[in-house]
Design brief:
The chain is of the alpha+beta class. It has a single domain (65-79, 86-280, 333-409), classed as Cytochrome p450 (Orthogonal Bundle). Helices cover 54% and strands 10% of the residues. Helix 11 crosses helix 12. The chain binds protoporphyrin IX containing FE.
Length: 410
């Protein structure tokens, strides 16, 4: 399942799995059950017998002496919202919801629009761009920096840290070196945020860290360690995914020029185009769940502690939910894709991500006419977090259009 052909296009394999059963055992990170159907994925998101990923899910595969080297990784991720369950998760999520309100997200809109224009200005005159590094990486990284209230100049640092985490989380057979790199990245992130949090306690601003410090519910508030951990989670979750959605979406449009043209001619289709982009080639392909008790499911015996991988990318191509699922159709009537999860752990950042991509796609399409591939697009060799490493593009600039008109006139 993990060869180059699969990375290039996993969807035929997903369809085979869907045709051949509802649960498949695979040797992925120590063994896991794969769940490829939409209805099953959505049901399991809400089923208490399958809990959210524990902190040690990624470290338990190593022998004890190696695992000790990942102590801080476990310490920090154990406090991540995403790694908590039940009452504890609910309590923390309620606090975060109070800090991360629609008002906080909406206030970002003009800044995201300005930033999008600035990034395009930087490459516009050349008539070409390597979209991933010049646009898709910096946009969400700077947005999350602004949201948290940290200097945007530091983004190269935290994109680097975040990449180490992404590699570790999504390697089918992670090595201890990858684990150590992720551990060190998390420690660096925590050390980075510590003085910033201390400073915000003295002088609050209108940013997420200050809002997290300020929230209190029935005497309940974040501890220092919880707060620092959520900062590292937001930094990681806030840009890796959005970056890949931008790349995957642009490539899907370029692969379907008639759909791109339809969108150009009908900008009011932007919202449904984005819904289709989110469905068609989603950036988070697998989400782990842990079996909390021995049970029988679809004729298989599942053991407590085993891992289930909910296949969001496969669920979004399930023909039972999405007719002709491999057809990219920006006029498709909306049906909730699995891309942002569901249930208690449903992505808290979805409104921000959707706003970012609405602005990104709206602006790219408006400002870059005749957008086209300018070389081979290279996929990241990553099964879980699906995206491009490079996406070289060319487009017509206003200058080019003027010169062309002059040529025609001569
Ligand atoms: C295209 C962009 C994004 C995608 C596809 C995405 C996807 C997801 C998915 C599938 C989950 C569910 C995890 C689970 O059930 O275990 C999730 C959770 C989460 N996401 Fe996102 N995400 C995106 C953007 C963001 C952004 C921009 C932020 C932060 C600003 C964010 C923060 C989070 C957090 C904190 C959680 C954990 C929620 C909880 O455990 O209660 N995400 N995301």
């Amino acid at each position: 399942m993990f060869d180059a052909n699969f990375i290039a296009n996993p969807y035929p394999t997903y369809h085979q799995m869907q045709a051949n059963g509802r649960l498949h055992w695979i040797d992925f990170a120590g063994g896991a059950w794969l769940v490829p159907h939409y209805d099953d994925v959505m049901a399991m998101f809400r089923d208490a017998r399958f809990s959210g990923a524990r902190a040690d899910l990624f470290t338990q595969q190593f022998p004890e002496d190696q695992r000790r080297q990942l102590r801080e990784f476990e310490e920090i991720t154990r406090l991540w919202l995403a790694a908590m369950n039940g009452e504890e998760h609910l309590r923390l999520r309620r606090l975060l919801n109070k800090a991360f309100t629609p008002r906080v997200v909406e206030a970002m809109r003009p800044r995201i629009q300005r930033l999008t224009n600035e990034l395009i200005d930087e490459f516009y005159a050349q008539g070409e761009v390597e979209l991933m590094h010049q646009f898709a990486h910096p946009l969400p990284a700077i947005v999350i920096a602004q949201l948290l209230g940290v200097p945007r100049e530091d983004r190269r640092q935290f994109v680097g840290w975040s990449d180490h985490l992404a590699t570790f989380f999504s390697s089918p057979k992670a090595t201890i070196e990858q684990g150590r790199a992720a551990n060190d990245a998390l420690v660096a992130m925590r050390n980075y945020f510590r003085p910033i949090v201390a400073q915000r306690r003295q002088q609050p601003c209108d940013d997420l860290i200050s809002h997290m410090i300020a929230v209190e519910e029935q005497g309940d508030m974040f501890t220092e360690d919880q707060l620092l951990s959520q900062c590292t989670l937001f930094l990681f979750a806030g840009h890796e995914t959005t970056r890949n959605l931008i790349g995957n979406g642009v490539k899907a449009l370029l692969d379907h020029p008639e759909q791109l043209e339809l969108l150009r001619q009908n900008p009011d289709l932007l919202q449904s185009a984005i819904d289709e982009i989110v469905r068609y080639d989603c950036p988070v392909q697998l989400i782990p769940r842990i079996v909390t008790e021995d049970l029988e499911l679809f004729g298989q015996s599942l053991k407590q502690g085993q891992i289930l991988q909910l296949m969001l990318g496969a669920a979004n191509r399930d023909a039972a939910q999405f007719p002709e699922p491999d057809r990219f159709d920006i006029t498709r009537s909306y049906k909730r894709p699995a891309s942002f999860g569901f249930g208690a752990h449903f992505c808290i950042g979805m409104p921000l991500a959707m706003m970012e991509i609405e602005i990104a796609f709206g602006t790219l399409i408006r400002r870059l006419p005749n957008l086209r591939l300018a070389g081979p697009a290279e996929r990241s060799p990553n099964v879980t977090l699906r995206g491009f490493h490079t996406l070289p593009l060319a487009f017509d600039t206003v200058q080019a259009a003027i010169e062309e008109e002059q040529l025609v006139a001569v």
